[in-house]
Amino acid sequence: MERFGYSDDELLTLPLSYRADLLAGRAALVSGAGTGIGKAIAVTLGRLGARLVICGRKPEKLEATEALLKRAGAEVLPHALSIRDPEAVAGLLDAAKARFGGIDMLVNNAGGQFPQAAIDFSPKGFNAVVDTNLSGTWYMMQAAARQWRDRSAPGAIVNIVAVVGRGMPGVAHTCAARAGVIALSKTVATEWAPLGIRVNCVAPGIIATEGMNVYPDEARRAMPDTNLMRRFGTALDVAELVVHLAGPAGNFITGEVVHVDGGNQIWGDQWTIPRPDWYTTPQESPFPGR
Ligand SMILES: CCCCCCCCC/C=C/C(=O)SCCNC(=O)CCNC(=O)[C@H](O)C(C)(C)COP(=O)(O)OP(=O)(O)OC[C@H]1O[C@@H](n2cnc3c(N)ncnc32)[C@H](O)[C@@H]1OP(=O)(O)O
Ligand SMILES: NC(=O)C1=CN([C@@H]2O[C@H](COP(=O)(O)OP(=O)(O)OC[C@H]3O[C@@H](n4cnc5c(N)ncnc54)[C@H](OP(=O)(O)O)[C@@H]3O)[C@@H](O)[C@H]2O)C=CC1
């Protein structure tokens, strides 16, 4: 089977576009850092000198990232929780404060969904996706902002969303949740600018990570045809954009949604479930117009 994602050694050694001490003295919290994009973000921030708080549900995944960060010479605090639990999220921010005096950057990367035709969604399935991707992200944003306000410290939030401007058939639940995160981010970018807090979103297109395995082979095979570059992007493409937005290069950027998608947002339709004949076979509509 095709291998998706980077090896640990690649994450530690691939050349970066930034100077090695760019983030020295800063602390970052990255959710979903045990795998894929989140792991690449955490390791990249660590390689640039940041101290890391990493979270996710499964401690064993976090342990692997913790070991990698230690190899990169970074200080790290792993903390297992579900971002769907607001009290646990408050506890996470407290733990970050106790260990590092607080964080400077928050990267909300944890998330996920399953492909299914929207007409078949159960209430529980829909709510699980919205609860994780929208509510969970919100609990993290609010807890971090409260801590920054109480410390009179500035902060930067980067929310990892998806390319949802035209919708994405097969994952309507996640499109709804991510569009919610984008609207939330733009709104609180305004409310929280007086606190020195910047809030931006990153919308990845198809990125080669192990998380891709939840999609059917047919959908995965067609994915490179949905962008101008005609390939998968990499977790490092996303990680380096996060560095730009969360770090000093992003000091005058807030309320923005930056796509790292090989041009998918302007070209190529993205299906995560089989296309109905309606879209594959030339045909006339059986439904009369007026
Ligand atoms: C972003 C870009 C877009 C995707 C577009 C594709 C192109 C871009 C590629 C993007 C890739 C990625 O995002 S890659 C990352 C993908 N990785 C993942 O998404 C990992 C899988 N996702 C998750 O684990 C998610 O956290 C989540 C879907 C919310 C499930 O979390 P939990 O299991 O903890 O949730 P619970 O509260 O227990 O509820 C589970 C219920 O969800 C429903 N459910 C769960 N899996 C189901 C399934 N395969 N088919 C039907 N229904 C399902 C059922 O109703 C379950 O109930 P019961 O029936 O009672 O159990
Ligand atoms: N790969 C891609 O092409 C794209 C990915 N994205 C998004 O980017 C993000 C990262 O994706 P990717 O790395 O590919 O996928 P992964 O599935 O590898 O990563 C998702 C991470 O989120 C964590 N997570 C999920 N639910 C929770 C929760 N309730 N609480 C805490 N942590 C949680 C998981 O860890 P654990 O299971 O241990 O909790 C996992 O480490 C996701 O939000 C994804 O939807 C968006 C567009 C495209």
TrEMBL record:
Keyword Oxidoreductase part of the UniProt annotation: yes
Pfam families xrefs: adh_short_C2 (PF13561)
The reaction(s) this protein catalyses: (2E)-octenoyl-CoA + NADPH + H(+) = octanoyl-CoA + NADP(+); (2E)-dodecenoyl-CoA + NADPH + H(+) = dodecanoyl-CoA + NADP(+); (2E)-decenoyl-CoA + NADPH + H(+) = decanoyl-CoA + NADP(+); (2E)-tetradecenoyl-CoA + NADPH + H(+) = tetradecanoyl-CoA + NADP(+)
Pathway: Lipid metabolism
GO BP annotation list: fatty acid biosynthetic process
Keyword annotations from UniProtKB, A to Z: Fatty acid biosynthesis, Fatty acid metabolism, Lipid biosynthesis, Lipid metabolism, NADP, Oxidoreductase, Peroxisome, Phosphoprotein
Family: Belongs to the short-chain dehydrogenases/reductases (SDR) family.
Name of the protein in question: Peroxisomal trans-2-enoyl-CoA reductase
